[in-house]
Design a protein that fits this description.
With about 350 residues, the chain is of the alpha/beta class. It contains 13 helices and 13 strands. α4 crosses α5 and α7 runs parallel beside α8. It is globular, with a radius of gyration of 22 Å. GO terms for molecular function: ATP binding; ATP hydrolysis activity. InterPro entries: AAA+_ATPase (IPR003593), ABC_Ni/Peptide_Import (IPR050388), ABC_transporter-like_ATP-bd (IPR003439), ABC_transporter-like_CS (IPR017871), Oligopep_ABC_C (IPR013563), P-loop_NTPase (IPR027417).
Length: about 350
């Protein structure tokens, strides 16, 4: 399957008062049409900066120093600002974390929805703009959409503001929608409503989705594939059900052990010891090595190669991949052999190093 969007070895640097730091480091990911990719990691791991890099929305002190972002065969990194402006909104939309800050408090909802039709389609007729705005608000299930056109963001609940943000971003039927923690600060019931709405819109339009989150449960319920980020790098990726069932990186395994479970109410949660290092504090070797229970001298000294299996569908950047995968797959090796298939461990291969 041809990727709708594919980033290759993407590296972004930020210049600050203490010098230059690497915020996104050698990130490679892909998302296919109609599929959803979860970008998972704790705060500060580089998830949002990766999405901003994909869309060319870096702050003035940031720049891409390496890599490509191919969207339908075009390298977005090489496009001019004017060319990127034509793609953002029309072909790729992005929903931000906090709809209250992403919406203009001084403009009515109707004006903000109509803006995307004015900018990208050149429509100036007020009656037509109102008709289109009502239509897109009804698609995201805003009740009494016509009456709410003249309301301001503060007159909407958090969930309704997020629906308005979604409406603005799907108005022109984009092929890719990037959702940067779209359910942040919403209660559980509203979270489920927003996720259900996004799923319905995706299925109706065969959209691709990149879903940024630190919530593994939401990711598992909503997405097809997953990329785990730590310290500005992707450390593991693959089909989400497979990755969560048989993690091949100690960080992924640690995240899963820290997820609350009703079936384990008598056990304490197993938190990952230590803290993620800051942008200017990354160690020379594996970023996770200072917190990893399996770390060796090699892990502290040298960043790991990628290991791939399942024809490249599964990837892990860990020197202990063979050990992790062996432990995770031991329970299914016998069943695979009994059915005439190859053991789950077969096919794990070290691939060319992609980092210096």
């Amino acid at each position: 399957m041809t990727a709708l969007l594919e980033a290759r070895n993407l590296t972004t640097m930020l210049r600050g008062k203490h010098g230059v730091v690497t915020a996104v480091d050698n990130v490679s990911l892909r998302v296919d049409a109609g599929r959803s990719l979860a970008l998972v990691g704790e705060s500060g791991s580089g998830k949002s900066m990766t999405c901003n890099t994909l869309l060319g929305l870096l702050p003035s002190n940031g720049r891409v120093v390496q890599g490509e972002v191919f969207y339908k065969g075009r390298d977005l990194v090489r496009l001019s600002r004017a060319e990127m402006a034509k793609i953002r909104g029309r072909e790729i939309g992005m929903i931000l974390q906090d709809a209250m800050t992403s919406l203009n408090p001084l403009l009515t909802i109707g004006d903000q929805v109509a803006e995307i039709f004015r900018v990208h389609q050149g429509i100036r007729d007020k009656a037509e703009l109102r008709r289109l705005s009502v239509d897109v608000l009804e698609r995201v299930k805003i009740p009494a959409a016509l009456e709410r056109l003249d309301s301001y963001p503060f007159q909407f609940s958090g969930g309704m503001r997020q629906r308005v943000s979604i409406a603005i971003n799907i108005a022109l039927s984009p092929e890719l929608l990037i959702c940067d923690e779209p359910t942040t600060a919403l209660d559980v019931t509203v979270q489920l409503q927003i996720l259900k709405l996004l799923r319905e819109l995706q299925q109706q339009r065969n959209m691709a989705l990149i879903f940024v989150t630190h919530d593994l449960h939401l990711a598992s319920q909503f997405c097809d594939d997953v990329a785990i980020m730590y310290g500005g790098r992707i450390v593991e990726s693959g089909p989400i059900a497979d990755v969560f069932a048989r993690p091949a990186h100690p960080y992924t395994a640690g995240l899963l052990r820290a997820v609350p479970s009703l079936g384990r109410y008598e056990k304490r949660l197993e938190a990952i010891p230590g803290q993620q290092p800051g942008l200017a504090e990354w160690p020379a070797g594996c970023r996770f090595a200072p917190r990893c229970p399996l770390a060796t001298q090699q892990c502290h000294a040298q960043y790991p190669d990628w290991f791939e299996w399942q024809n490249g569908a599964r990837r892990s950047a860990c020197w202990q991949t063979m050990q992790m995968w062996s432990q995770a797959a031991s329970s299914c090796c016998d069943s695979a052999a009994d059915s005439g298939g190859e053991p789950a461990l077969a096919g794990v291969a070290r691939v060319r190093r992609e980092v210096a």
